[in-house]
Design brief:
By secondary structure, the protein is of the alpha+beta class. The protein is built from 5 helices and 4 strands. It has a 4-stranded antiparallel β-sheet with strand order 1-2-4-3, sandwiched between helices.
């Protein structure tokens, strides 16, 4: 598939069908993440695949809003890194996460980013701590995001050409 088409078609999906993702597609998605660029080629990220429905339901409540749709996803990938390995872990994890999303789109699958880093429950509990507790993730790992993956319940319309060229500056701001 042409990359311009992938860029135009990729939309965040929060409604997934019951259809499972086949193992080859999962392998391609994770392989894409493992090939993502990283600062100084450190590749310090880690990916935890979650397909247990009970765990996905618990993860759906890891923050006040923006995670409930994890209950419907057949697969979620927790993207994390040890900040002691690189000071660019946020950037590296983010690049790997969007690489997974583009690969999923190329395979006809849908995805949605769930922001975890810097998010909290109403009582002040860090969303990352909730995720760590559910999935037994070591304290040394910083959870950046979760990528929900699945077959879309309904295919979204491609993105319009409403590109904001006025936000592009040349030379000086």
């Amino acid at each position: 598939m042409n990359f311009d088409i992938i860029l135009s078609n990729r939309r965040s999906c929060r409604h997934f069908s019951d259809q499972l993702i086949d193992e080859d597609a999962v392998a391609k998605i994770i392989s894409a993440a493992l090939r993502a660029p990283s600062s100084m080629n450190r590749r310090a990220w880690h990916f935890l695949l979650v397909d247990d429905m009970a765990d996905l339901e618990k993860l759906a409540d890891c923050k006040e809003q923006g995670a409930a749709f994890l209950k419907q996803a057949p697969l979620a990938v927790v993207v994390m890194a040890d900040p002691n390995e690189t000071d660019c872990y946020i950037e590296d994890c983010s690049i790997a996460a969007i690489t997974m999303q583009y690969e999923a789109e190329s395979l006809g699958l849908a995805s949605c980013w769930v922001q975890i880093r810097g998010r909290y429950l109403s009582d002040g509990t860090k969303a990352a701590d909730v995720v760590r507790g559910i999935l037994d993730i070591p304290e040394s790992m910083e959870v950046v995001c979760i990528i929900a993956l699945g077959h879309p319940e309904k295919k979204a319309e491609p993105r319009n050409d409403d590109l904001r060229w006025e936000q592009v500056h040349i030379g000086k701001f």
